[in-house]
Amino acid sequence: PTLLFEKIGKRGNNGRRYYACSACRDRKDCSFFQWEDEKVSEATMLAREAEMQSKRPGFTEQEYYNRFLKFSSLPHNEKKFCENCQILLLPAEHSAHSAHRTTGVTAAQLRRPSTLLRPLENKKCNAQYLFTDRSAHFLLDTLAGLGYRKVLCLGTPRLQELIRLRNVEQKHEPMQSLLLDIDLR
Predict the structure, then answer these.
(1) What is the DSSP string of 141-181?
(2) Contact indicator for 151, 163 with CB cutoff of 8 Å
(3) Under the phi-then-psi rule, with left for phi > 0, alpha for psi from -120 to 50, and beta for the rest, what region is 178?
(4) Dihedral sign of CA atoms 141, 142, 146, 151 in order
(5) pLDDT tens digits, residue range 97-115?
């Protein structure tokens, strides 16, 4: 996804519009740049497609879901998380990650997976809000107190997790929520 920007000349005139990445504000992180009025060559299109393919996650959304279902059904002692790769490991993958730092995974961590993941560090590309429990509970209680029943969580996975957990407990009026986040994990 891109946004349309305008580059203004030094005297404030002769602006030229261009498209650049909507998530990253630094060209080192995402080199996409396209003048609005410039025709895109076939070679450029192929190069961009190849770059996008190289940055895709290792699994599709369905494959991640199937892996999660398999992982959830494992005995407690076989549930491992690779901290280096930031992925839940199935038993057949344990040996391939033996040189990595792995930890066991509890049922509580599976309900709140953001507690397993380390924060992404690039603030120009990854605006993440990994609230403390106290802050997330305050936000959730405030939203509920104001009567909100639909919540859009932008880069706030811990708030999303609490909303889902609260709905499962069925002690409060249910809330619908959607998490939008560019973190592939």
Answers:
(1) HHHHHTT--EEEEES-HHHHHHHHHHHHHTSS---EEEEE-
(2) yes
(3) beta
(4) negative
(5) 999 999 999 999 998 988 8
Measure the CA–CA gap between 38 and 81, rounded to whole angstroms. 46
Tokens (6 digits) for 139? 């936000």
List phi, psi (to 5°) of 69.
-60, -45
| CA dist., res. 142 & res. 66, Å (int) | 35
Diameter of the chain by CA atoms?
68
Of 116 and 25, the structure prediction assigns the larger pLDDT to 116
Ramachandran class of 42: left when φ > 0, alpha when ψ lies in -120 to 50, beta otherwise: alpha
- Smallest CA-to-CA distance from 178 within 164, 166, 134 is with 164
The model's pLDDT over 12-33, given as tens digits with 9 standing for 90+, comes to: 677 889 998 888 877 788 888 8
Distance spanning both ends of the chain, measured CA to CA? 19
Say how far apart CA 166 and CA 114 lie, in whole Å. Answer: 16
Place of tokens 């407690």: 76
